[in-house]
Amino acid sequence: MALLSVSGLTKRYRGGILALDDVSFELDRGQVLALLGANGAGKSTLIKCLVGLIGFEGSVTVDGCAVTRGQRDARARIGYLAQQPAFHPDLTVEETAVFYADLRGTARTEAHERVASVGLEEHAGKLVSALSGGMKQRLALSIALLGDPPLLVLDEPAAGLDIAARLELRALVEAQRSRGVAVLLSTHWLEDVPYVADQALVLAHGRQQFLGPADMLSGSADARSRLFLRLAGAQQEAVRIVRSLLPWSETATKGDWLVVLCRPAEKARVVEALVRAHLAILDLRVEEASMDLQQLADGISRDDDEGAQSCA
Predict the structure, then answer these.
(1) Same domain for 71 and 26?
(2) In a domain, 309, yes or no
(3) Burial of 65 per CB tally in 10 Å (0-12, 13-18, 19+)
(4) What is the structure's pLDDT at 310?
């Protein structure tokens, strides 16, 4: 039986506004599902339903427990990381973790262990207000892991993070996957999806437009993206790294800038390789050749319509 099972999930707001329309999917232990969609597609509503914050029609079960608003048994099996975690700025990292451990009824010793597990042990005495964006996300993840929940629900965890912090987040998600934890990850970083997720769910206007292997969203093999990276020196070393990683890519240097012509799904690999080589990236921009999320959803919807017409 799947750890997370969603069947016929529908959400109507006042005035008859249909935010979700008959969404169904499953997620097994040790799998990562990427949730994608343009603004207003229904991603946040879906997550609120999954964690029991709002009522809905249909069925959601976590580890065999039905999710309903205010129901604690299912909620105890879910670790939830909100898009913008709200922490008290005058508490330290350790005090914050202990506070949430008390709320969840878990041992305070576990709070210390979770802080250490996400690499914040040396910063335990630091005030939350002094943390970087990446450190705050790590703290939020440590809190989501309290009680060792089998399901993690992460709502846009990479929003506002710099490149290095995004790579850290990817490593943390992979670490949870390796422990057998199921992860539902809402993201707008389409290029990261094939590297962090097994499956992908695309929503558009509240409806399910795609559910399948994440690598199917990598875009056309003929599409190209132009990646501009402003480096603090070492341009030739960067060229060597990129050519070693992607022999078929095209690279050029213009002053402080390295320009890489590559497939859309390869941009993240290029950035990650340079960061791991300790090359300082001062700025980054992309001329995107691949479709954005709304175009992706519209294209899938159009393909479905054409298929239906051809079968008529």
Answers:
(1) yes
(2) no
(3) middle
(4) 36
Angle at 193 between CA 189 and CA 196, to 5 degrees: 120
Considering the domain architecture, whether residues 123 and 204 belong to the same structural domain is answered as: yes
Burial of 201 (0-12, 13-18, 19+ CB in 10 A): buried
Does 160 share its domain with 270?
no
Q: Find the domain containing 117 and state its range.
A: 4-217
* pLDDT tens-digit readout, 139-184: 998 999 999 999 999 988 766 666 666 777 778 888 889 999 999 9
Closest CA to 9 of 64, 68, 72: 68
CA distances from 9 to 97, 110, 208, 209 (A): 33, 34, 10, 14
Q: Is residue 302 part of a domain?
A: no
Tokens describing residue 161? 């993070």
Q: Is there a single domain that holds both residue 274 and residue 151? A: no
Last residue within a domain, chosen from 217, 250, 269: 217
Instruction: Give which of 186, 185, 171 is closest to 117, Cα–Cα.
Output: 171
